[in-house]
Amino acid sequence: MSTSLVTTLSEEDLLALQAAKKKMEEIGWAMKGLNRIGGVLETGIDKLPQKQQKWLQQVAHKVLHTVVKANLKTMQKGKQNSTPSNKTYKALVTSSGIIGGAFGATAFAVDLTVATKFMMRSIMDIARSEGEDLNSYDTQLACLQVLALGGKSKHDDNLDTGYYATRVALSSAVKNATSYATKHGMGAVLQGSNNTLLKLIGAVASRFSIQVSEKFVAQAIPVIGAAGGGSINLAFINHFQNMAKAHFTVRRLERKYGEELVRGVYEEIQLSK
What we know:
By secondary structure, the chain is mainly α. It has one domain. It is about 70% helix and about 0% strand. It has twelve helices and no strands. It has helices at about 5, 10-25, 40-45, 50-75, 85-105, 110-130, 135-145, 165-185, 185-190, 195-220, 225-255, 260-270. Helix 3 (about 40-45) packs across helix 10, helix 5 (about 85-105) packs antiparallel against helix 11 (about 225-255) and helix 7 (about 135-145) runs antiparallel to helix 8. It is globular, with a radius of gyration of 18 Å. The relative contact order is 0.21.
């Protein structure tokens, strides 16, 4: 790593950035723990009928649209830098999975909606703990971007899943939605007919749907049941909490040092194998 770049960050901030990259690069699949269920995940998604794959993409899009509108309207914005309630949200999402697992694939859409709602609130909670202002349109849309950070899987070969590559891929949609919100207010952005937000949700949903599909295949296994459904959801939220912590750590450092410098250091950090 370039010494000139490293020495511009304090030791504490460099360690924080290294930890953030480790979370981003080494977690792997969005639901890494689901691999332990068995080899079904390796082939299950590819064997889903095209009609069902399209349905899952539509479910992911609809869930994100519903959740974004609900959470951005109701999240308390008065707190500052408080410790995020990760355990509370994990418990809520796990409970949703237990109930959904008991009813199998038929309850998938309902479970996903509830789980994603709590995941988004957890993401916003983490953002606030890293000094983000939830009144900021940029922050609110940055929370949505976290759900596009799914890690690498054999099912996302057509997507560049690197952290900064993902941000670049979404940057145009984020910029347009932020510009519209600044001019017209978040209330206007949250209207169902607003194209700027819908385009951003669509871009995020195309990546989020990969993890949604992996979750669906896992929950469709007949022997999973309630306990398995809870475990799947726990792995699901654990991943996105890690992504949120890393994402908003990077953004905090970018506010302090500038995006160009932080990105340069991030890309030069070599993680131990």
